[in-house]
Structures are given as structure tokens and as C-alpha cells.
Amino acid sequence: MKIHLVHPKYLSDDLISQEHDFLHKLYNSLATDEPMDHPDAFRYNGRRGQLFARHRRLVEEMMIRTISHTTLIDRRDIDSDHWSEPEVADEDVLKEVEELKDGPAGRVKFPDSTDPGDFTCLDVISTVLIVRTENDILQALWRIYRFTIMERSYTRYRSLTETLQGRGNASVFMLFDLILEETFAEEPDDRAPAIAYDSIWENLDEKAVADEKAEYERLVGELLPGKPSIEMRRFLASVSSRQGIENLVRSALLAPYLE
Fold first, then answer.
1. Against a cut of 0.85, is the pTM above it?
2. What is the three-class DSSP state of 252?
3. SS3 for 199?
4. How wide is the angle at C-alpha 143 spanned by C-alphas 137 and 144, nearest 5°?
């Protein structure tokens, strides 16, 4: 097994689960005096922060596919100088792409491209770091992740809402990320998915057509306690796109279904 170079959306379910399990073993190994004998142990030695970042990408993809995930990484255990990125050659990325094309398909088809950047892809956090202040970053992350958090735990959603009100500093940023990591590592509350979908629908209901209203009611009727619905997410993403509601289209809960 290995830590892949391409974005997890291009990996099969089995490869994502295998990489996730291996990543935890590698991460723990690098915290000891005798790391495992593996090329990735050399690549990520002194760079456990980058394993945390890769873990976050894997977990988000697992959530998109509703693959169960209950293991977290506490970033407070990572040294501040362990966040530098390992050097990755373009040819290594392209070689991995060719190897993966011969195996099981991922959620998203590989693009017809020879640009390595098209396969590694910026994660959602990278897209908000262009804003200027800590508070702006927090608010941008909140807009992206609020419904993802709500779908798993309304209690944690409320705790983050209160945390972000009128505050923007490094300690709050860390608290946000820790709660986000903890939320990703727990099974959804029984009512959480329904609450999240209803909150999104409140933004869409007024301009929805009759067929969309009927479809929403059908999907609500098929929801199971504590079980996220990919079909509901796809539906809400489609309606949000048709209505052009940017904050919904760009949310982490719906955006993947428009790729």
C-alpha cells in the first residue's frame, strides 16, 4: 500500500479504505524512533502535517461516498515545523495516473490531460487561504463546511456557530479545525441528516418548481435515521445549481455532486 499522489476522488472505494488504514499506521510509525521500512516513511519523515492534510482529503472523500469513518488525527500532536510539503516529481504523478487507469474506477473519471496539477487538485481549504484575515478564513470555511457538519451533528453545528460569532483569532481557528476533525470521525446523529437537508431546502423551496417539491418530499420520506442520502445530496445540488445559489453550490456537502 502507499500514500497516493492523486486526489482521492480518482480512487476506487477499496483503494481509499486501504490508503486510509495505511496512513494511520505510517503516521503512528513516524512518531517513533523506528519508523516502518517503506518509501513513504522516507518521504513523510518530519512531515506528519502533510499526512494530516492527506487524511483530511481522504476523509472528505469517504464522507462524499458515505464510507464509514471513525478515526481522527489530533493535529495538536504535530510539530509546527512538520508541515512542509515533500517534493513530488511530475513524472511520478503521471506514472501513478497511468497505473490507476488500468484498475477500478474512482468517483470521478480521470481528465484527458498531461498536467499533473489536474490530478492532484487543490483541496477546498487551499481555495480560501487567499483571503486576508483569520476571521475571513474562518467565515469562508464555515460557509463551505456548515452543512457537512450539520448533517452529522446539529449539536456540534451549534457549538461552532457560537464559537465563530464575533471572534477571529488563532485559538478559534484551531478550535474550529479540531471540532471539524472530531465531527468527521463520528457517525451522524439520528436526526442530523434530515435537519441539514431541511435547512438547505429552506433556501430553495420558494423558487422550486412543482416537480422539485414533490421529489424533495419523496426523498425525505425515504430517509433513514442517521443515514446520509447521496440521492438527496445530488438532488439538492442540482436544484441549487439551477437556482444559482452560490453558497450552496460551493458547499462541501453539495459541490462534489456537480463535478
1. yes
2. coil
3. helix
4. 90
Q: Answer whether 141's CB lies under 8 Å from 125's CB.
A: yes
* C-alpha–C-alpha distance, residues 36 and 146, integer Å: 38
Containing 140, the helix (H) or strand (E) segment is: helix 134-152
Angstrom distance (rounded) from CA 184 to CA 97: 28
For 227, list phi and psi in degrees, rounded to 5: -115, 110
Rounded Cα gap, residues 217 and 160, in angstroms: 29
d(CA 231, CA 246): 20
Query: Mind listing the pLDDT tens digit for each residue in 138-161?
Result: 777 888 899 999 999 999 898 888
| pLDDT (tens digit per residue) in 171-193 | 677 778 888 888 899 899 999 99
Grid cell locating 252: 462541501
Contact 111, 15 (CB under 8 A): no
Q: Are 216 and 208 in contact (CB under 8 A)?
A: yes
Class at the top of the CATH hierarchy for domain 8-120: mainly alpha
Gap between the terminal Cα atoms of the chain: 28
Count of CB atoms situated within 10 Å of the CB of 179: 17
Domain locations in the chain as residue ranges = 8-120, 124-259
Q: Give how far the C-alpha of residue 161 lies from the chain's centroid of Cα atoms, to the nearest Å.
A: 19
pLDDT digits (tens, 9 = 90+) for 46-55: 999 999 999 9
